[in-house]
Specification:
mainly beta
């Protein structure tokens, strides 16, 4: 029988301004929480190409550009959309309930 992940609270919806990202640390995970016009997305915070923090990157719609080497990812799917990145970014299923942003970790 497979484990069913339960949602883990990351932050309040009020903590992430529209068009921005927030770094959230949970146990040994560093996650980036994004707010795109009231829709929330969660990915690993570290770029898959180098030491860049994606929560400190440049969010343009649903694309986050790493401020280290300017690689970019689609935050909805983790797909690489600009080099030098080659490895997709890990994304997490998001649940918003009572102004809490939660992810299936």
């Amino acid at each position: 029988m497979a484990d069913n992940p339960t949602p883990t609270r990351l932050c309040s919806t009020d903590d992430v301004d529209p068009g921005s990202a927030l770094l959230v640390e949970i146990d040994d995970l560093e996650l980036a929480v994004y707010n795109v016009d009231g829709h929330f997305y969660v990915t690993d915070d570290r770029c898959t190409h180098g030491p860049g923090s994606l929560s400190e990157g440049y969010l343009d719609g649903c694309v986050i550009e790493c401020d280290f080497h300017n690689g970019a990812f689609d935050i909805r799917t983790g797909e690489v959309v600009a080099p030098p990145c080659m490895v997709p970014l890990k994304t997490y299923e998001v649940v918003v309930e009572n102004n809490d942003v939660m992810a299936m970790l």
